[in-house]
Amino acid sequence: MGVAISRYSDISSNELLARFCSAEIICPNDPFWNQLLAFNIQLPNNTDEQLIFDSSAEALLQKFLQNNLQTGNLGSLVQVFITRATELLAAPNSDK
Question: CA-CA distances (angstroms) from residue 62 to 4, 12, 66, 67, 68?
Fold first, then answer.
């Protein structure tokens, strides 16, 4: 779903994720969502990788939990998904 592949240790310093979790309100029509959705990360393959992922993402998760009630960024993300899904369903099937 994107070309930018990140390592687990880079998650805590990722500018896109930091903005998503911040106190900044991001509207559903903001071009930011294109960048965020192009972000890609490989899933952890073992317990050690999972622990590194969890520890590097924990600070962002706490920040997100503190800010989302005011920003509604999760709701904006859901709206973006709904809009894109609707567009995909409305697009003519090119397989025929």
Answer: 24, 12, 6, 9, 10
